[in-house]
Amino acid sequence: MPESDYFQIGMKICATTYHGQKIQGEVVAFDIASKMLALKSLPVSGKANVHDMNLLNLNLISNLVVLEEAPSEPPPPPKLNLAKIDSRVRANKEAKNQAINYIGINVSPEGQSLLHTIARTMNEVRWDGADILVMDQVRIVPPYTAEHIIPLRHDQAESTKALLKHIRKIVEKHHRDQASHAERDDRESSVSSTSS
Fold first, then answer.
1. How many CB atoms within 10 Å of residue 115?
2. Nearest to 143 by CA among 114, 115, 174, 111
3. CA torsion through residues 169, 170, 173, 179, sign
4. Is the overall model pTM greater than 0.70, yes or no?
5. Does the pLDDT at position 67 exceed 50?
6. N or C: which end of the chain has fewer CB within 10 A?
């Protein structure tokens, strides 16, 4: 290891772990307090325009050789696309807020399961007490069967009819799938109990 225990960005090194693995690359970050070193190296996949990143704990390195000193001036840090970062943060926040709407309080496991099934194909799903609201146009009340789907709009518009029909299909398929899983679980448990 270098006597200074300090690594400059842009320095090229070859490290050998206590397990004998050799890792070669360019230093992109170093934290002296935690003795963590980040190396950028050629990709194992061989793909162009990408790099592998390795984080090394220097306490687990048996040998380290400096292959090339860093240039006199470190390269400038890459420019950040702040608009893209901001957009990702907003999208992640919206997804977390949406996930909160998917958690029911004092609802049955069947109702929770149905809400997750509906949410896979429709974004505007949330709890309203023990009821499931879909697009603020349809309410599904316990015990969450197709007979318990209530339209909130009583117009006979084609869009309302189509939405009701679609939700009814989802609910019916969900209950068929649940029954099928329960039958399979019963068969498997009876087979395992008879073979014991």
1. 23
2. 111
3. negative
4. no
5. yes
6. C
Split at pLDDT 50, 70, 90, the class of 4 is very low
C-alpha dist (Å) from residue 44 to 98, 105, 168: 38, 48, 50
Label the pairing between strands 61-68 and 52-57: unpaired
pLDDT above 70: percentage of residues in the chain = 92
Let me know if domain 12-68 sits in CATH 3.60.15.10: no
Q: What is the pLDDT of residues 50-65, one digit of tens each?
A: 889 999 999 999 999 9
Distance CA 52, CA 95 (A): 29
Shortest CA distance to 134 belongs to which of 147, 148, 115? 115
Q: What are the pLDDT digits (tens) for 31-42?
A: 989 999 999 998
Domain edges within the chain: 12-68, 96-191
Core vs surface per residue 127-142: b (16+ CB within 10 A) or e: beeebbbbeeebebbe
Crossing angle (nearest 10°) for helices 109-119 and 158-195: 120
Strand 22-31 to 12-17 pairing: antiparallel
Bridge partners for 56 per DSSP:
37
